[in-house]
Amino acid sequence: MNTKKVVLLLALTFALAAAYYFDVGQYFNLEYFKVQQAQISHYVSNNHLLSLTLFFVIYVTVTALSIPGAALMTLVAGALFGLLEGFILVSFASTLGATLAMLASRTLLRDSIQKRFSDAFKTVNAGVEKEGAFYLFTLRLVPVVPFFVINLVMGLTNMPARTFFWVSQVGMLAGTVVYVNAGTQIANIDSLSGILSPALMGSFVLLGIFPLLAKRALEMVKRKQVYKGYDKPKQFDEDLVVIGAGSGGLVTAYIAAMVKAKVTLIEKHEMGGDCLNTGCVPSKAIIRSAKFMADVNRSADLGFRSANVEFSFSDVMSRVQRVVKAIEPHDSIERYSGLGVNVVQGEAKITSPYTVEVNGHSIRARNIVVATGARPFVPPIKGIEQIDYLTSDNIWGLKEQPKRLIVLGGGPIGCELTQSFARLGSDVTQIEMLPRLMIKEDEDVSLAVQTRFKQEGIDLLLNHRAQEFVIRDGEKILICEHEGNQVEIPFDQVLVAVGRAANTKGFGLEKLGIETTTIGTLSVNEYLQTKYPNIYAVGDVVGPYQFTHTSAHQAWYAAVNALFGQFKKFKVDYSVIPWATFTEPEVARVGLNEQEATHQGIDFEVTRFDVAELDRAIADEEAHGFVKVLTVTGKDKILGVTIVGEQAGDLIAEYVMAMKHGIGLNKILGTIHIYPTLSEMNKYAAGEWKKARKPEGLLQWVEAFFRWRRKDQASAVANEPRAYGSLADVNNTAVFSSAESARLTH
Ligand SMILES: Cc1cc2nc3c(=O)[nH]c(=O)nc-3n(C[C@H](O)[C@H](O)[C@H](O)COP(=O)(O)OP(=O)(O)OC[C@H]3O[C@@H](n4cnc5c(N)ncnc54)[C@H](O)[C@@H]3O)c2cc1C
Description:
The chain is an alpha/beta fold. About 50% of the residues lie in helices and about 15% in strands. The strands form five sheets. Strands 1, 2, 3, 4, 5, 6 and 16 form a seven-stranded mixed β-sheet that branches. Strands 17-18-21-20-19 form a five-stranded antiparallel β-sheet. The protein is globular. Flavin-adenine dinucleotide binds next to helix 10, strand 2, helix 11, helix 12 and helix 18. Flavin-adenine dinucleotide binds near residues 249 and 547.
């Protein structure tokens, strides 16, 4: 706790203790005031300015300390100073006191509470930022929630103190007038609760919801404004038109067809989009072939003297295409037509918020979903235009293996293809301008991948910025800047894998004025709507994650919100998003890692299980990597997991499930995992967590109990058969380490 907090806490404790000691509560009641009124009024009329000042100070102190009494003091202000003076006095004193109480709560509690309940506060803070002033205004206007509760709770949020002050000042005006006015008739008042009649209360409620209603009305007007100049068709041809038949578009169309909506899906190129044709599928196919070569190259590890493989690169690439062809039917026109989707081959153009043109034909669409994906981003490096560079789009057409291959980029795509081509025999130089590969992952993760890459002979050039491509004496050379020096790297082919740019241009969005974000993806709200509420966007074109499974996840929200949004709309949920990079070691993650949790100021604890200890990993010669689990401090609630090692992408599923459904490490530890499998690493990570939190004090008592029992009942026990407890109990209490319990389960 810092000095500021300590001083504030001491001051508050002292003030509250003094209030309790002097029993100030006895003065804050209506009867007491009525009895003393004549005497106090006499003092006030003789010392007016001093009385005003004293009253102001007492009012601010009472409200700042959240001592009950503000309502009574407001009445008293009316009785002593009259309507106008009393109103002005209370209005400023109450706002100042409220702001001080809010700031005290903020200083003492906000950081720790926000850290502890970080998930919940993400939503609260977003809400406060967007509509906080409206809600505070409503709360101030409708005196239902106690004054001091509002102050303390708002202190926990990120609302700026200035906003809090002026909204409170304005919001409390009406209530203050009513109370001060009532105070001028204090002799007729018997209780505080009697001041507000049901009719008056009703008026306050109406006043309170007025700003919210006004805001909604404003939104409606804005929406109308957006569509100005476009006539809404009297009839529609389709409930939904989906542009792009990649993962996002296909799933959107599928859901629409399943709920019997009329849907047209338009694709200008190949059904299946990037994932099937140039992304996930071909990359995973080449990774598999490359892994076989890597196994051959370490045949001695598996007990063979030598192994030799003859292969042609073009055969491997043919296999990659064979795999694509095998999966193609899942995304084919025939399949989707059979499901009831009207599939159109052609380039779509949005001509108005309600019309999409394709092949010279205009379709009137009640809703449109943009799922146009992304393309490889090609940076404007000097001389790049004279190089016949490769991207993830055209690399799959290679027939000849590049001898010297440069891979530009240390993200997932660059890493997967670097390792694959290196394993197949290319001399690969991977170039990354940042200090490590996979920069979004923790440092230990990058290090594990980098170490393996170097072991496999990949030339890894970190902190190298590509500056220029030149062709000198017929040889292609990349010039990089590294620590102020120029480094020249000759090469035969270069793969550019430095990121992906969203496809937002050339099909009508610019003309409609649909905004993009600073990183070039489409701007959408939490329902995936663009500024035209009937035009949605999903997948790589919108981000923030560019994966097949996140595109499919968004597709559900876009389809359901578009088709049923007038009844209920759903905010897209990004709380538990997993992904994997299929290098060796494989890297999979769900939720937060250490660098993100630290950056977000979230309190967390880290538990690590080293896969080198795992029996199955040892048997498979894959005893490397780790499971790293981040949990809420003092709890088993999982904030995020990273797995590095064999099959990490599959193994993370258990943690994804746990996070999604609020299952903690205790429950994972109490779940039977088959021996010997790699999945045991998940349980053992939970075991490590438990082991670090075993109840030492209790175990000392248990030990003492056993000691006593051995001594006291030694003779009786000698004649009885021994009873053993269940091993499962032992495992679950995790008195043993995970590795110990693994051995015990053999
Ligand atoms: C090498 C590589 C490996 C990858 N590996 C993985 C992985 O292992 N796991 C994973 O989850 N993700 C992976 N991805 C990412 C994944 O491929 C994408 O996230 C996913 O394909 C996005 O789907 P989408 O529907 O948004 O876009 P896309 O699949 O790109 O589909 C968009 C479609 O829209 C069409 N289109 C565009 N404009 C128009 C128009 N005007 N009219 C008609 N049609 C149009 C395009 O032709 C395209 O078919 C990988 C990507 C690459 C490049």
